[in-house]
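[recover] target loaded
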């Protein structure tokens, strides 16, 4: 309840106003008495010598004093004192008019009243005590919680996006691009292995010389193909001898020519070889291989797989998906920590 009591005393252009903001309070509450003096700007205004922590009247305690001033109309100036008062005794108090002096002349405000009432006490149950009430929660504010709600929805959306990308990543199987290193068999090693197999089967004394010469010449043709770099498998004997001469190699050309010509006669003319001729041709083949082999060649071969355009595209897609998954995971963690921190603060 708010009541205003105004007193305006006019004497030679001086106005005194005394008012109270509440004429009724509970024990221990505070009220404010304001005394405003409006006089000439050069007037000397003297308020009573109030002091905090004293009694304004018996039963009414003066707690604090605040001063203020402002310009008024017609060259006048307003000066005020705001008195904070309280009381701890139930009663109706009369607050006397405040006397101020303006240029040595006394001026008074108007008498005020203050009613102090106490709280109802249960005198029938004096032994029933109740603990103080707990701290009340702040009222719910949507403006504080709405950002957390939207961030939580964003976290859920990012989580769903991450699950979908993970599913896509599993659907795109990884492309294995490991480099294989295999042991390389040199041309002369492969040829000598084939000749050792011919010797192990005793084909030089076989009743079927055609098979013996076919396998022996095929071994030599394969060796020449790998060693000298021309397709001896599809060439005739004169063509093989000619290409060997053109390559600059003259090693055992005569013996090799004789071996191939004997093989042609056996395979196409049913020629019967002489005693020891098969063994001689085998020895010539071994000598030709041994004298024309290349030493110091690498015995291992690195096989690098060549990816198709589809494989390269799949690898690129997997890299993009993995990058997105890591980025989503980092953002998810940061947002989750922030939301939890803000919720703890609000609670």
């Amino acid at each position: 309840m708010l009541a205003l009591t105004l007193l305006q005393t006019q004497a030679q252009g001086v106005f005194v106003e005394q008012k109270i903001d509440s004429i009724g309070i509970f024990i221990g509450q505070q009220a404010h008495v304001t005394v405003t003096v409006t006089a000439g700007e050069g007037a000397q205004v003297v308020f009573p010598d109030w002091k905090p922590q004293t009694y304004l009247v018996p039963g009414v305690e003066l707690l604090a004093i605040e001063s203020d001033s402002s310009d008024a109309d017609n060259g006048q100036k307003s000066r005020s004192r705001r008195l904070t008062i309280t009381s701890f005794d139930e009663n109706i108090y009369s607050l006397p008019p405040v006397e101020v002096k303006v240029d040595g002349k006394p001026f008074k405000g108007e008498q005020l009243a203050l009613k102090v009432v106490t709280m109802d006490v249960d005198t029938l149950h004096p032994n029933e005590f109740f603990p103080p009430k707990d701290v009340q929660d702040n009222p719910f504010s949507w403006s504080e919680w709405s950002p957390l709600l939207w961030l939580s929805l964003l976290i859920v959306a990012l989580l769903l996006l991450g699950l979908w990308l993970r599913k896509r990543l599993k659907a795109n199987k990884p492309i294995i691009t490991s480099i294989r290193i295999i042991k390389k068999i040199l041309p002369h090693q492969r040829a000598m292995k084939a000749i050792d197999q011919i010797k192990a089967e005793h084909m030089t004394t076989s009743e079927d010389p055609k098979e013996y010469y076919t396998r022996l010449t095929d071994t030599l043709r394969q060796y020449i193909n790998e060693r000298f770099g021309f397709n001896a498998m599809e060439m005739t004997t004169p063509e093989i001898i000619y290409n060997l001469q053109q390559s600059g190699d003259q090693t055992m050309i005569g013996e090799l020519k004789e071996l191939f010509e004997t093989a042609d006669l056996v395979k196409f003319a049913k020629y019967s070889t002489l005693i020891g001729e098969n063994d001689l041709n085998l020895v010539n083949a071994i000598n030709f291989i041994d004298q024309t082999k290349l030493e110091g060649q690498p015995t291992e071969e690195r096989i690098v797989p060549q990816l198709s355009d589809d494989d390269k595209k799949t690898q690129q897609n997997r890299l993009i998906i993995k990058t997105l998954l890591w980025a989503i995971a980092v953002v998810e963690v940061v947002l989750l920590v922030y939301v939890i921190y803000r919720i703890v603060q609000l609670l």
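[recover] notes: The CA atoms of residues 225 and 231 lie 5 Å apart.
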